[in-house]
Design goal:
Strand content: under 5%
Distance between the termini: 45 Å
Number of strands: 0
Radius of gyration: 21 Å
Number of helices: 6
Membrane topology: Multi-pass membrane protein
Function: Vacuolar Fe(2+) uptake transporter.
Pfam families: VIT1
Transmembrane segments: 60-80, 114-136, 143-164
Catalytic activity: Fe(2+)(in) = Fe(2+)(out)
Shape: elongated
Length: 173
């Protein structure tokens, strides 16, 4: 006879207690996770696009223009996706409030703010390889600098996310 293991998840009240200085790191984790994810997405996708163009063509202008186009397209994609996602969440929460016949409280999701934050975080990540490639003439050096800058920025974004969430910066980096 097999025994069943039950996973007990603490209630929301237990996981969202503020720290001694009043900061609630569980609430911070939601937007922080999204910001780090979008910045990493912008960094990796733009660097990859630029490295692909750079491997096919020894032209700094083509590499930077393709990276800029990737940044704009990716930021728009992230913003639209985040808007739709958060608007769906807002609809669900409003429907629940209506069923419970309660008035909306502060803290409801804001689709426009979420979309803008996603686009901004993606653009910050995408700016790293663009800036790394923008000022280097030598093809080989430019490719190496983009790869190195992307690698270093990934570690820095992980470190910053961990530091803001008061988690292990070594593990985050």
């Amino acid at each position: 006879m097999a025994t069943e293991t039950k996973l007990t998840i603490p209630s929301n009240a237990e996981t969202t207690e503020p720290s001694a200085d009043g900061t609630n790191f569980s609430n911070r984790a939601q937007w922080l996770r999204a910001a780090v994810l979008r910045a990493n997405d912008g960094l990796v996708s733009t660097a990859s696009l630029m490295m692909g163009i750079g491997a096919a063509k020894d032209d700094a202008k083509a590499m930077v223009i393709s990276g800029f186009a990737g940044m704009v397209a990716g930021a728009c994609s992230m913003a639209i996706g985040e808007f739709v996602s958060v608007y769906s969440q807002l609809d669900i929460e409003m429907a629940q409030l209506k069923r419970e016949q309660r008035l909306p409280q502060e803290g409801l999701p804001n689709p426009v703010r979420a979309a803008m934050a996603s686009a901004a975080a993606f653009s910050v990540g995408a700016a790293v390889p663009l800036l790394a490639a923008g000022f280097i003439k030598s093809h080989r050096v430019r490719m190496a600098v983009v790869a190195a800058a992307a690698t270093l920025a990934l570690a820095m974004f992980g470190w910053m996310g961990a530091a803001l969430g008061r988690a292990s910066v070594v593990r985050g980096g």
